[in-house]
Design a protein that fits this description.
globular; mainly alpha
Length: 289
């Protein structure tokens, strides 16, 4: 399997897992507040990758590299996910889906500025085609632009921008450090923000009843959706140009919608099917660069 194929599979698998997480997290967040769930995700992700790193004897890292990765993780898991939670809370889920779908476009810009990747006509065409596919999948007519949602929408834009910046910086630092070690340390970077916000949440509203089903959901979100999926996402950016790796992000709303239809009774429209086809075409175009 060549590097491009492995990178695309890694990215698609990561975003497909995140699409599945939508169904699980919807149930879990009815009991556990968002930042408390994020803290459990990061801790479980750290534990999962730490066990693997110990077994593979990959814990050696220079102090300078540690702090570089830590601050990149702070951007991704502290700032970006924080903006996403706050934005979704102050805006709507539909707006969240629409705004965060702009992430690959932001990646294209940051990759050109930071990594000096060329914005080729083929990559730009692939981004446009895939973006049109996402618009068809999430249907922007459901978005709301009320003035009361302005602050939430701006937080969502900030989330998309900072996640794009995180992803591009991951591409940069994976040139010198193993992806597993990077993923592990990056999770640590998200803890200061998530633990602080979690303490505020719990003191204000507490936790709901933790059932065995909730525990299973938390374990899935922490081990699979965080530990495994984030490692795969970082692997995609280690193996591919950032502008290509970012296009795999578009699989998330597709998988989320399909599983939402299966488990939550949501409706799949012909427009969704057409959008999924366009996303696939965009990935094919980009991969043939």
């Amino acid at each position: 399997m060549n590097k491009t194929t492995l990178g695309i599979i890694s990215g698609l698998t990561a975003t497909s897992i995140w699409g599945a997480m939508y169904v699980v997290s919807k149930a879990v967040m009815a009991v556990i507040p968002p930042f408390s769930l994020l803290t459990s995700r990061l801790l479980l992700g750290i534990l999962t990758l730490l066990i693997i790193a110990v077994v593979q004897k990959k814990l050696s890292i220079k102090k300078k590299d540690f702090w570089n990765i830590f601050w990149v993780g702070f951007i991704g898991y502290g700032i970006s996910l924080g903006f996403q939670f706050v934005g979704t809370n102050l805006s709507t889920a539909a707006n969240g889906s629409l705004v965060t779908s702009a992430t690959p476009a932001f990646v294209l810009i940051f990759a050109a500025l930071i990594l000096r990747e060329k914005i080729t006509p083929k990559r730009l065409l692939a981004l446009i085609v895939a973006s049109l596919g996402v618009l068809a999948v999430i249907d922007p007519r459901s978005a709301q632009l009320d003035s009361s949602l302005f602050l939430g929408n701006m937080c969502l834009v900030a989330a998309a921008l900072t996640w794009a910046l995180y992803s591009v910086l991951i591409r940069k630092i994976t040139r010198d450090v193993d992806v597993l070690v990077i993923s592990l340390i990056a999770f640590l970077g998200g803890l200061p923000t998530s633990i602080t916000a979690s303490a505020i949440e719990i003191s204000a509203q507490g936790l709901g009843q933790i059932t065995p089903g909730m525990v299973a959901g938390i374990l899935f979100i922490g081990i699979i959706s965080t530990g495994l999926a984030m490692y795969l996402w970082n692997t995609a950016f280690a193996l591919l140009d950032a502008s290509l790796a970012s296009l795999t992000f578009f699989a998330q709303p597709v998988v989320g919608t399909i599983l939402g239809a299966i488990f939550l009774g949501e409706i799949i429209t012909p427009l969704f099917l057409f959008g999924g086809l366009l996303i696939g075409v965009g990935l094919v175009i980009a991969s043939r660069e």
